[in-house]
Sequence to fold (167 residues):
Amino acid sequence: MKKMKKRKIPKLNLIPIMDAVFIFIFFLLLSAQFLDIHEIIAEAPAVATFNEQINKKEPLNLVIEISKGEILVKTGLDAKLFKKIENGERGLDQLYIAMIDLKSKNIEENSVIIRPKKSLPYTQIVTIMEMVRRVRTEKEEITGTGSKGQIIKSKTLFDKIIFDSVM
Fold:
């Protein structure tokens, strides 16, 4: 019987492939752009019919129009001007006080429509969103009377934010 010769399997040389992958990763990292990505949590506007017999109290319909110079807080279906606030550090405190005032009078309301100007910086919109979303400290609470006369306590202001078209 003849003995079969064992064929030697050549080993793969992986060094050139590893070099190419290393260089590719290096160029990929150098060409990547690192951006800060922020997420805005907002819900789409809900469509509902308004029945005057059931809802005797006019809805709050809170709208905040933001521009570089001022913040306009409007309420009601006819968008009456509730407060005109100068846009800045002091203005943010006034906005917060106005939101607490509105929440205490309308304790069951929890939505706000934000209408920013196109030229407004994104960080400023996020700051205003945080102002209208919740109270500043864990100990702070807002108390108000509900539609059925019950006392309601809340630690949130207007946490359902709806974006209107950018002006």
Notes: The longest helix spans residues 15-31. The longest strand covers residues 80-86.
